[in-house]
Design goal:
The protein has one helix at 73-76, and strands at 3-4, 7-10, 15-20, 36-42, 53-54, 56-58, 66-71, 82-92, 95-107. The protein has 114 residues and is mainly beta.
Length: 114
C-alpha cells in the first residue's frame, strides 16, 4: 500500500519535493537502475488523464533512495488554485509500484511578478 502525504505549493513558485523511498521495515530502499517515475495530479479522481498535470520526476544520488518531483513556476502559475489529487509511481519493465498518493493544495498568489 502506498504512503499518503498532503503537499502544498503557491502559484508561480518553482517547487521541488524530495521523497525518501523506504522499504516495509522503514529502511531506505535502494532502487536499482532501470526505474523511471511518473507523478501526476488532477482536480478529481474522475478527471480525464488528458486533463492531468505532470511533475518532472528524477532520481537524485547514487545509490538511488529518493525521488524528486519538480514543477516549474511558469507551469504552476497557469494552474487554477484549489485542491488536487496526485499519485507517484515507479515503473520498470512492464510493472509499476505506487509509492505515494495524497492531496495537493495550490494556493493563489496575491502578487504577480512580471
Amino acid at each position: 500500500m502506498p504512503e499518503y502525504a498532503d503537499l502544498e505549493l503557491h502559484q508561480g513558485d518553482d517547487i521541488l519535493f524530495r521523497l525518501e523511498l523506504l522499504d516495509s521495515d522503514r529502511s531506505l530502499w535502494n532502487v536499482s537502475s532501470g526505474y523511471t517515475g511518473r507523478a501526476t495530479f488532477k482536480k478529481t479522481y474522475a478527471t480525464r488523464d488528458s486533463d492531468a498535470y505532470n511533475f518532472t520526476v528524477t532520481f537524485p544520488g547514487d545509490p538511488v533512495n529518493a525521488v524528486d518531483l519538480a514543477l516549474d513556476g511558469t507551469v504552476s502559475d497557469d494552474i487554477k488554485s484549489g485542491r488536487y489529487v496526485y499519485d507517484v509511481f515507479l515503473l520498470k519493465d512492464n510493472s509499476s509500484v505506487k509509492v505515494l498518493e495524497g492531496k495537493l493544495e495550490i494556493y493563489p498568489s496575491a502578487t504577480s511578478i512580471v
